[in-house]
Design brief:
Helix 1 packs across helix 2, helix 4 runs parallel beside helix 7 and helix 5 crosses helix 8. The protein folds into 2 domains: 67 residues, Orthogonal Bundle (Arc Repressor Mutant, subunit A); 129 residues, Tetracycline Repressor, domain 2, CATH 1.10.357.10. It is mostly helical and 211 residues long.
């Protein structure tokens, strides 16, 4: 989908013509920076246009309003997070590596450019149903990815597999946010290894039902 391309932060020089997709990515990058710095309610379309180095009419050509722009950003980063987790799970059949990859996906996401994770996890617009639905959909997709593997490999029924998946996703998200907000004093690779080891010690207790 069009929102999945990583937004670019830098603004193009005035007078330089960009393709529609390139301009859209540029505007999303500027919006990400403004929303992350000011929050949704305090951010203005004037601020975003200025950050992008474009006029407001150009901004409105791509996004009819601030909420449309914010939802496009949410979809972009929600898809990024789900994609990171899917790649971590599907690139190997070794479940220990899958757990490590799942935890690493969250740490990589929160350490990404532009504090995009705050738009997903710390938005001041979570009370807006349409915005909340985007975030909830991403969370559900992440849980579904993990639950499917747990159910297939450990033979657990759907409710139990899903409960374990919620636990792994919750640990990954909470510790990644804490790690970033607290310094971080622990190197990223070590933090991932610590949390992946903790999660694996629990999940490894469920025997595989096939080789």
């Amino acid at each position: 989908m069009a929102d999945s391309a990583p937004p670019q932060t830098a603004s193009a020089p005035r007078g330089v013509r960009l393709s529609r997709d390139a301009r859209r990515a540029q505007l999303l990058g500027a919006a990400r920076d403004v929303f992350a710095a000011n929050g949704y309610h305090a951010a203005g379309m004037d601020d975003i246009a200025e950050k992008a180095g474009v006029s407001k009419p150009v901004l409105y050509q791509h996004f009819p309003g601030k909420l449309d722009l914010y939802q496009a950003l949410l979809r972009t980063y929600a898809d990024e997070l789900v994609g990171r987790l899917r790649d971590a799970i599907e690139r190997t059949h070794d479940n220990k590596l899958r757990v490590h990859g799942a935890v690493a996906a969250y740490f990589d996401f929160v350490a990404g450019e532009g504090q995009s994770f705050r738009l997903i996890f710390e938005s001041d617009l979570r009370s807006e149903p349409e915005a909340a639905a985007v975030v909830d959909r991403a969370l559900t997709e992440c849980i579904d990815l993990v639950a499917r593997v747990v159910s297939e490999d450990a033979g657990l029924d759907a409710p139990r597999a899903r409960l374990l998946a919620v636990g792994l996703i919750g640990i990954s998200q909470a510790t990644a946010q804490y790690w970033l907000d607290s310094g971080p004093d622990v190197p990223r690779e070590e933090a991932v290894a610590l949390m992946a080891g903790l999660a694996w010690k629990g999940l490894a207790g469920f025997p595989l039902i096939h080789d």
